[in-house]
Amino acid sequence: MSTLAVYSSPDTRPRVLHDFDDIASVLGGIGVLFEHWEANRPLAGDADPQSILAAYQDSIDRLNERFGFQSADVISLQADHPQKDTLRNKFLSEHVHADFEVRFFVDGKGLFYIHKNNQVYLVLCTRGDLISVPADTTHWFDMGTEPCLQCIRLFTTEDGWVADFTGSDIARHYPDFDEFERTFAPAKA
Predict the structure, then answer these.
(1) Amino acid 186: pLDDT
(2) DSSP string for residues in 19-84
(3) pLDDT at 75
(4) Residue 49 above 60 pLDDT?
């Protein structure tokens, strides 16, 4: 289940939301697009990237009309990946991109941290969630110590998604993915 925690500072209690429409509204207020997509056809658990892209083509086309994407790909990362720690650490520090960052979670989950207007928004994205972080917005990402995710990435330029790190240590002051899940994820029924 998608979850949003909004912090005014690392030592204050955050405002926590679980309702999808409420999360989308709060994120929309800072220019972050947050949607839920459904596949337009059944998708096998071992589907190849082309099948995954085809299953979400209607949603991709709708977004493409608005933003003019030049490419899309599918990435997958599981807990048994030999470079999972290196890949996780790559984006744990605050950074910006010249292009907006668009991720659709076909499966699994990940935690985006968005630093905007003196607040930090922790967004747990889960299966079916699309998030678009605007260009030049400070943020970072954590997939946890045991990653499990499959995402469609959409790009408007080849070089716009290069990370420009801010040098700030802000990320160390907020819960990591694993702590966030233990603390804020709703109890399973």
Answers:
(1) 74
(2) -HHHHHHHHHTTT-EEEE---SS---TT--HHHHHHHTHHHHHHHHHHH---EEEEEEE-TT-TTH
(3) 92
(4) yes
User: What is the rounded CA–CA span in Å between residue 4 and residue 70?
Assistant: 30
Q: What is the architecture, at CATH level 2, of domain 3-184?
A: Sandwich (2.60)
Question: 155 falls in which pLDDT band (50, 70, 90)?
Answer: confident
Question: What residue has token string 């995402």?
Answer: 151
Among 95, 96, 76, smallest CA distance to 84 is for: 76
Are 34 and 19 in contact by the 8 Å Cβ rule? The answer is no
Average pLDDT, the chain: 93
| SS3 at position 182 | helix
**Average confidence (pLDDT) over 47-68:** 94
Handedness of CA 116, 119, 120, 125 (dihedral sign): negative
User: Beta partners for 71?
Assistant: 155
Vertex 140: Cα angle to 170 and 169 (nearest 5): 20
Q: Which class for 131: exposed (0-12), middle (13-18), buried (19 or more C-beta within 10 A)? A: buried
